[in-house]
Structure formats: structure tokens, C-alpha cells
């Protein structure tokens, strides 16, 4: 496995790289550059090589223990911000990018984030500290609602939803480097939604909302799960590519 390397070998801002294109690298920096190049040749994602990814309005620490935040997930944040909330629960938080983006936009809100991975939670906690949001974010290690107390105005999640069959078709950058537990629950890809739909109603205050990122073919199945659990006004939102991306509903 390629060794970790510095995110900025030349130590200049990205917008000034062109001005430094003819600058010579020291021997140490040249070695560092070769490490980065070897990592990318091995199909390691750029965000893991640099150690960060831009999402919404902030930079988030990324490691092999976390899912690399995707631009499509920003729709989940956008939808969640459409109505007011004071207490939010983020299930399967990973880097914490969803919860922390929401808290940054709502200074009076507080949040709880869960993840089954201790290593992922450590990254999320680091991101909370970097963004000065740690006092308003509480992190719980556990599977979905395990260890979560109280009720919430809003529940959000980008759970694993890739089917077991689809895993083999993923690009090596994803399949070989990102944590499989954050990508797929196995089987038909809907296992996480079943668990979330089953437990969410009791964790929401009356009038509270749930917003879930989905795979492009899963809107009907996830909508049916929420309806069966008593949720109302189930709605599907599409991303910029006109693909079904978020299912939202509210507790009557």
C-alpha cells in the first residue's frame, strides 16, 4: 500500500500552482511527490491522498475509515435546511459532513451523530473540533439508533445502499479503497433503510422530518417503507443529473 503523503508537496495555494510550475523541488519534496503519484496510480482516491474533501461550505478530513463525501449528498443538506430544527440526528455519519454542515447553518441547533465505526467517529469528531462545532455535536458509536436518547426535529442519513451485485462493478477508486460497510449493506441494498424506517418514527417529535439519500432506483421501495411505518407526505427529490436522490417525509 502506498505510504501517506503530504497534501501539498509544493506548499503553495492551488490557485498559484501555475506560477510555480517551473520551480524546482527539493529532494525531500520530490520523494513526497513520487509517493503521492504512486498512491494515485494505485487508484487511491484523491481525497484520501490529500486527506480532505470540500463539501457544502467547508473542508472535511477524510481517511480510509470514512466514505468520501460526494457532491450529490449536498442535496440532502439543502433539503434538510428547508425547515427549522433545533435537534438533529445523523445516522451513519462518516466524516460528519452532513451533521456539521447543518449545524454550521443553524447556530442554535444541536445534533447527535452515530456510526458503527470507531475510526470514522474519530474523524467526525476531529472535523467538529476544526469547525468549532464540537460543543453542539454529540457522537455515539453504535448501529443506527443504538445508544441514542430523546427525540428529534430532524433525522438525516446517507446510509450504505449499493447492492451486493453492484459492488463488483464499482470503480477501483471506490471498491478497493472506501470502507465496504459504508457502501453496501449486502443483498438488495435496502437493509439499512429497513432498519432506519422501523426505528425513525419513535425518534421523531410530532411534525418532525426524515430525509434519506437513496440510490437512483430505490425511491419507490424506500417511500413504501416510510409510508408503512406511518410517515406522511413522502416526497422524492432529484439531483442535478435528474436522478432520484433524496426521499423525505414527516411524522404526523
UniProtKB/TrEMBL annotation:
HAMAP family referenced in this protein's UniProt entry, alphabetically: RF_methyltr_PrmC
PROSITE patterns linked: N6_MTASE
Pfam families in alphabetical order: MTS (PF05175)
InterPro entries: DNA_methylase_N6_adenine_CS, HemK-like, N5-glutamine_MTase, RF_methyltr_PrmC, SAM-dependent_MTases_sf, Small_mtfrase_dom
GO BP annotation list: methylation
Task performed by this protein: Methylates the class 1 translation termination release factors RF1/PrfA and RF2/PrfB on the glutamine residue of the universally conserved GGQ motif.
Enzyme Commission number: 2.1.1.297
The family this protein is said to belong to: Belongs to the protein N5-glutamine methyltransferase family. PrmC subfamily.
Protein name as catalogued: Release factor glutamine methyltransferase
Domain Methyltransferase small: 73-166
Keyword Methyltransferase: yes
The reaction(s) this protein catalyses: L-glutaminyl-[peptide chain release factor] + S-adenosyl-L-methionine = N(5)-methyl-L-glutaminyl-[peptide chain release factor] + S-adenosyl-L-homocysteine + H(+)
Organism listed in the record: Rhodobacter capsulatus (strain ATCC BAA-309 / NBRC 16581 / SB1003)
Major enzyme class: transferase
Residues that hold S-adenosyl-L-methionine according to the record: 92-96, 115, 144, 158
GO molecular function: nucleic acid binding; peptide chain release factor N(5)-glutamine methyltransferase activity
This protein's UniProt keywords: Methyltransferase, S-adenosyl-L-methionine, Transferase
Binding residue positions for substrate: 158-161
Amino acid at each position: 500500500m502506498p505510504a501517506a503523503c503530504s497534501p501539498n508537496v509544493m506548499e503553495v495555494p492551488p490557485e498559484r500552482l501555475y506560477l510555480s510550475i517551473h520551480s524546482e523541488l527539493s529532494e525531500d519534496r520530490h520523494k513526497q511527490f513520487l509517493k503521492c503519484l504512486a498512491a494515485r496510480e494505485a487508484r487511491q482516491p484523491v481525497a484520501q491522498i490529500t486527506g480532505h474533501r470540500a463539501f457544502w461550505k467547508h473542508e472535511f478530513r477524510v481517511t480510509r475509515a470514512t466514505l468520501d463525501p460526494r457532491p450529490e449528498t449536498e442535496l440532502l443538506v439543502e433539503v434538510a435546511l428547508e425547515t427549522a430544527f433545533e435537534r438533529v440526528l445523523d445516522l451513519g455519519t462518516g466524516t460528519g459532513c452532513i451533521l456539521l454542515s447543518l449545524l454550521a447553518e443553524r447556530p442554535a441547533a444541536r445534533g447527535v451523530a452515530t456510526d458503527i465505526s470507531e475510526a470514522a467517529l474519530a474523524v467526525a469528531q476531529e472535523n467538529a473540533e476544526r469547525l468549532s462545532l464540537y460543543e453542539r455535536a454529540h457522537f455515539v458509536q453504535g448501529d443506527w439508533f443504538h445508544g441514542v436518547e430523546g427525540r428529534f426535529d430532524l433525522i438525516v442519513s446517507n446510509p450504505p445502499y449499493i447492492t451486493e451485485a453492484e459492488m463488483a462493478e464499482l470503480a477501483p477508486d471506490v471498491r478497493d479503497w472506501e470502507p465496504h460497510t459504508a457502501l453496501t449493506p449486502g443483498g438488495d441494498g435496502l437493509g439499512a433503510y429497513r432498519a432506519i424506517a422501523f426505528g425513525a418514527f419513535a425518534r421523531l417529535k410530532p411534525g418532525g422530518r426524515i430525509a434519506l439519500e437513496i440510490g437512483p432506483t430505490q425511491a419507490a421501495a424506500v417511500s413504501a417503507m416510510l409510508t408503512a411505518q406511518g410517515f406522511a407526505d413522502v416526497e422524492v427529490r432529484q439531483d442535478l443529473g435528474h436522478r432520484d436522490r433524496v426521499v423525505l417525509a414527516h411524522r404526523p
